[in-house]
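User: Here's a chain of 605 residues. Predict its fold as tokens.
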Amino acid sequence: MTHVAPTQQDARRDGPDGTEPWALREYAFLGDGERGALVSPRGELVWLCAPRWDSDAVFSQLIGGQGQYTVRPADHWQISGGFYENGALVRVSRWVTSQAVLLTREALALPSDPERLVLLRQVSVERAPASGAGVTMVLDPRPGFGHAPLSGWQRAEEPTGPGGSTPVWTATGGGLRVRWSGAPEARPDVDGALRGTFTLREGEQRDLVLEISTERAASTGSLEARGLWEETQRRWRQVVPDCDSTIAPGDARKAYAVLHGLTSNAGGMVAAATTSLPEHAGEGRNYDYRYAWLRDQSYAGIAVAAHGPHPLLDSACDFVTARILEDGDTLRPAYTVTGGAVPAERSLGLRGYPGGSDRVGNHAGRQFQLDTFGEVLQLYAAAAPYGHLEDRDVRRAVDVAVTAVERNWERPEAGLWELEERWWTHSRLSVVTGLRALAAQLPEREAERPRALAETVLARTRARCLRPDGVWARAADDPSVDAGVLLPLARGCLPGADPNARRTVAAVQQELAEDGYVYRFRHDGRPLAEAEGAFLLCGFMMSLVTHHLGDRPAAYRWFERNRAAYGPPGLYAEEFDVEQRQMRGNLPQAFVHALMLENAVRLAG
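Assistant: Prediction complete.
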């Protein structure tokens, strides 16, 4: 069929230096909170922005740019599989060649520094002939999406301790400084890339350490691999909680690790690590998700709060509080991870991932989305049992948010799906949910205001958006159904005995669900799968709402169906192509991992 992005077999094509793109489901993700990398099954690092999420890419082959960092066996006859170490974004790949078995471990080092990243790659040999196993390596950073060349590579001996030293390659360009250790055999080629091979015997290992820092960084750090690995593993053990009480402990821990890997030390959590990956081939729905959406971060905070008072809950509350106090009624749906404005969209002049584009910046940063206030209020309510409402800034932010709802709830806005300004039902129901949840956590004398406002908004929304058959319409001027309304219904927007929730859920299942997956809304007269992929967020919403309505078997079915919609690395994108069983859109998608985590917690309760 021509309406979807190519599969792995037909999407692969020659890249600018011989590498080829893979189906999205095949890529693994490395993240340290300040930036993220994608690695292919062939050991090619094809995406990394430096020094931060929204900086220009140093490796951009994912969207048709330049730059690569490849480490893999030299034997052309090879196959690889991999996994993440439990509760960490440490990726392990196992390579089987014609004569040997090798392991590679990869991670972005922790703790992270916004001015400096360290990428660790370790190669070891499980089995090899007496002559050993060959490993090939290529390092070719191309800052500025390939437009800022590096200076010539220089090799120098750097001290490693008392009486010791190691050869380190260095270069600068695009405002960045690059250092690479562990590759004395490498040599620059005519195109400026470092290339080389080395041989390891059975039981041996080699560490490669790549540092990329800003030229303004005060100093470069140690490239001693053992200490970097030990500290990285210690930090992952420290930040990712035990999820054994959930119904999917391994996936829950991975989801938490992904959310941590997407969350900056400044507090903001990016929606995804990438830009311009196609939600639907050739239709222009390709966006830059390297920014922090307050809605997505609220989803993550609510999911974490369902499990316990973990650090990601603090990050979410702190980040949204700062934005609300700074912007008030003019609150934007998205910011940079440090709270800055999201730049306008522009094209890079690259060919893009097959079916996608080369767009950076996001128009959503200039929209008004009413439901953002509702999601933030729900976050504060979820965080209240852990003492967050006792914080003076949080209480001020709560008052600002409630006031903003009072002033703006009747105003047309862009809504959950960031479309044209209309009177969207989901936005009003989200606000009602947030106000009611907040009121339940406040002293009675303070709860009256948000409770009364919730009743006012709900009454008006009933009058404008509830169809005669008791199903919530998509908008005041659109009687069709929208899967987005499932989430406020799941979070207790309506009283328990209200029949309209069940009627709406049944309508969504009848009109927007296929094969256990849920689509957002019907775009036009085409079959659902021809317009776009199923939205995994909506599938997990369906699981939550059926659980809320008391149908636990159905909730488990929806959960398990959507939980399985990942590729070999176990990551989720925004959409899932039900026909081709392929992932669509940017990845890893934070709000999908957040709702998966929340389901895993609540279904175990």
